[in-house]
Amino acid sequence: MNHDFLKIDQVGRWILVFIGCIQLGFSSSVNATITAGGLAVIGYDDYQGSFTVAALQPIAAGEVVYFTNNGWSTSRGMFNGADPAQGAGSESIIKLTTTAAMAKGTVFSTNASGVNYAWDKVSTITGTSNGIATFSNLSLNYNSDQIYAFQGSENNPLLNPTNFIYALHFGSADYPTFSDGVDEMSGGVPPGLSLGDNTASATSTSFHGDADGNHSVWGLNVDSPAIASMQSTGAHIDQWLRELSDVANWESGPPTVASLRVAPEPNRLMLIGLALITIVMRRQRRGYLS
User: Fold this and answer.
1) Do 140 and 96 form a contact (C-beta atoms < 8 A)?
2) Domain range spanning residue 288?
3) Where are the beta strands (DSSP E) in 136-195?
4) Is 188 found in the same domain as 100?
5) Alpha-carbon span 12 to 6, nearest angstrom
6) pLDDT digits over 80-129, tens only?
7) Are strands 217-220 and 250-252 parallel, antiparallel or unpaired?
8) Same domain for 196 and 248?
9) In angstroms, rounded to a whole number, what is the distance separating the alpha carbons of residues 169 and 184?
């Protein structure tokens, strides 16, 4: 029996397994749901009630994401104002649907629908007992408010959230950061998000207002050293989230970036496959030497 042939054949089988791991990894990345931090708010205008979002991961066609400024009540485990009879809660909710696959780095605004996405600002929210609540632009409170990105049931999504993606809090001296949602200016951090991993971000109290003191338009500053560097080299999602949470990288005015350069994350299955092949090759090498 040719033992050398058997050893080579065994390595070949491991290589086939590795290729299968890569294929599975690519497949899972394409079909994966939107993860925490997969979308992030990079600008807002509390007078117009508009905001800008960036995709920090590939977004599949047909995904539905809701954005609301109803504060999250941590003590009650629900959005403040969510009710079977009121689909918009005590504030407002807007719906985003991707009509085609969106590449990571795509930037889009509620001011206009694009080639790969459409905003719903007029439809009746289904599943409510009164049947009159509608999607709309967010009516952002200039003193303090939040923008939450989440997925949920088509019927009254505000009352039935299932996947939290991102949370931004812009505050004032009285509401400097996230807190239990009890009114139109307060809101907590929902399950699955955290300040620690920057999937929830709270601005400083100075990051608010303009000359008249009651109108805030803020956005990502693409000329800040950190953002310019990441745009030049391409950065991973965790780096983007970290820098988006740093107010030094924002400026007064809307964001002026068409896309972000988000680097691909290392594929976990690919790394496992490489590790397995390395182990097998080392064992085969020892066998040849013995």
Assistant:
1) no
2) 1-31+265-290
3) 145-152, 161-170
4) yes
5) 10
6) 999 999 999 999 999 999 999 999 999 999 998 888 899 999 999 999 98
7) antiparallel
8) yes
9) 12
